[in-house]
Specification:
The chain is of the alpha+beta class. Helices cover 13% and strands 26% of the residues. The chain has helices spanning 31-37, 40-48, 137-142, 151-160, and strands at 5-7, 57-59, 62-65, 74-76, 92-93, 111-112, 117-118, 161-166, 176-181, 187-191, 204-211, 217-223, 227-234, 238-239, 244-245. The strands form five sheets. It has a four-stranded antiparallel beta sheet with strand order 1-13-12-11. Strand 9 and strand 10 form a beta hairpin.
Length: 246
């Protein structure tokens, strides 16, 4: 499984030591790290001068930011279930479209307790195992124009933006990851809402629309103060959703 990895600060990388985000071995600096830090002073200056989240327009009443991505995909400025860019929003199990008070395998929509088997999205990614619109939390809650991002969308977002962790972003009391587009300088913010397993605001987990490398997993974006990358783990956990539109 491909994993994009970007250091998000000059401090020592602290990675998610949790079941939903396994420790990663040290590895050589990749092109993303070099790209961000070969001109670290000028990039730091960009982050020091961030004054607000960029709002480029609206679709179906929801704000989006145009980050100048090659795909032309636009990202929502706040999470599904949130009211502002610094709100955490709701948690959703992968493939479910409503939040719930408890997230377990036993109460998961696509799990049969009698047989002990998952009942839908059983294919591997290469076989086209992506969420259908009826199971997409972004589409169901925000309308047909919106959808959950694919892993390709996340990979593009990581590559086209510079990233830094922000504690108490703009005095909001919310920690999270700030992205600045290398193409047009527009700004996006992803709050660290944790997930249903940890509910710790030191981490951010955002579902993609793609099933993982085994039937019980789905792909997602994961970040903490030191890094941001794509990964996969149990789809029965509740995690954040950030919608996209084209």
């Amino acid at each position: 499984m491909k994993k994009n990895f970007i250091m998000a600060g000059m401090a020592t990388v602290v990675l998610c030591a949790l079941p939903s985000c396994e420790n990663k071995e040290e590895k050589a600096l990749d092109k993303y790290i070099y790209d961000q830090y070969q001109h670290s002073d000028s990039i730091t200056h960009l982050f020091d001068n961030v004054k607000e989240i960029t709002v480029s327009g609206q679709v179906a009443g929801y704000d989006y930011v145009d980050l100048g991505l090659p795909s032309k995909v636009k990202w929502a400025t706040y999470n599904v279930g949130a009211k502002s860019p610094t709100g955490y929003g709701e948690f959703y199990a992968w493939g479910e479209t409503a939040p719930k008070s408890e997230y377990t395998q036993e109460n998961y929509k696509f799990y049969d307790n009698e047989t002990g088997n998952f009942t839908k999205y059983l294919e591997y990614p290469g076989q086209g195992a992506y969420l259908e619109a009826e199971d997409d939390a972004a589409t169901i809650n925000w309308g047909s124009e919106w959808r959950m991002p694919s892993n390709r969308d996340f990979e593009e977002l990581l590559e086209i933006c510079y990233w830094r962790w922000s504690a108490n972003f703009m005095g909001s009391g919310t920690d999270g990851m700030v992205g600045i587009s290398k193409t047009n300088g527009n700004v996006i913010f992803l709050p660290a809402g944790g997930d249903s397993f940890t509910n710790e605001h030191r981490f951010g987990y955002y579902w993609s629309s793609m099933v993982g490398p085994q039937v019980s997993y789905a792909e997602y974006l994961c970040f903490t103060a030191g890094a941001i990358y794509t990964y996969s783990h149990f789809r029965t956990n509740g995690r954040s959703v950030r919608a996209v539109v084209k």
